[in-house]
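User: Design a sequence. Structure:
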């Protein structure tokens, strides 16, 4: 991976999101009615994205639900074997740190029949997004079964929105029907991105971003 870091400003993000909504005709075609933001990187992009999305038929803003996922490298023992003698495969694992409680017995909101946009800041190895899709699909299917439907009967649609997609070999693939609803505001080479919400000194950060872009 090149060592050069790419600083991104809030204004660049805002503008990239505005342009992407037009380019992908998101209001005319995907028409999301629910966003699920993957925290923490997906929160601010989801909120900015909402500014450019059409309100619901009832004139309400598109709701944003939050999930927390954290990605970590699997620990490999020095011998390469676990306590049972099995050889551990190096890899990456995703852990839920926060999840939806949709479909819980007292919840009024349901995932079923929704057009759901999963929002994150960057698609790097795709591990996090693939995991989020897999888990949400399980939840949708479980809710369908609970309500006496067949899997898929609710016509719930999932899509993905990211600020940046790094063009590189991905560790995980996405289901075909999700790929049709995949929106990346910016596609870019494999480079480390520095987001404004991580900046300690926002003025210097923004200067860097303006200089190099
Ligand atoms: P994944 O490899 O699962 O696609 O991405 C996992 C997470 O790694 C992202 O949600 C993001 O938090 C972090 N990440 C990956 N690439 C970058 C990057 O270039 N800059 C920053 N700030 N975070 C990144």
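Assistant: Done.
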């Amino acid at each position: 991976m090149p060592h050069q870091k790419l600083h991104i400003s809030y204004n660049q993000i805002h503008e990239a999101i505005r342009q992407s909504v037009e380019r992908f005709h998101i209001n005319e075609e995907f028409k999301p009615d629910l966003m699920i933001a993957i925290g923490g990187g997906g929160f601010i992009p989801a909120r900015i994205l909402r500014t450019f999305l059409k309100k619901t038929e009832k004139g309400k803003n598109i709701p944003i639900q939050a999930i927390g996922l954290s990605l970590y490298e699997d620990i490999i023992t020095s011998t390469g074997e676990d306590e049972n003698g099995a050889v551990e495969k190096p890899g990456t694992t995703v852990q839920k740190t926060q999840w939806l409680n949709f479909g819980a017995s007292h919840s009024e909101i349901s995932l079923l029949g929704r057009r759901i946009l999963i929002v994150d800041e960057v698609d790097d190895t795709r591990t996090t997004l693939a995991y989020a899709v897999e888990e949400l699909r399980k939840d949708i299917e479980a809710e369908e079964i609970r309500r006496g439907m067949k899997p898929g009967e609710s016509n719930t649609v999932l899509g993905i929105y990211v600020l940046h997609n790094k063009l590189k070999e991905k560790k995980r693939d996405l289901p075909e029907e999700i790929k049709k609803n995949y929106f990346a505001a910016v596609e870019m080479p494999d480079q480390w991105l520095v987001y404004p919400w991580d900046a300690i000194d926002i003025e210097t950060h923004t200067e860097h971003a303006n200089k190099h872009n």
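The first strand starts at residue 5 and ends at 7. The longest helix spans residues 127-146.
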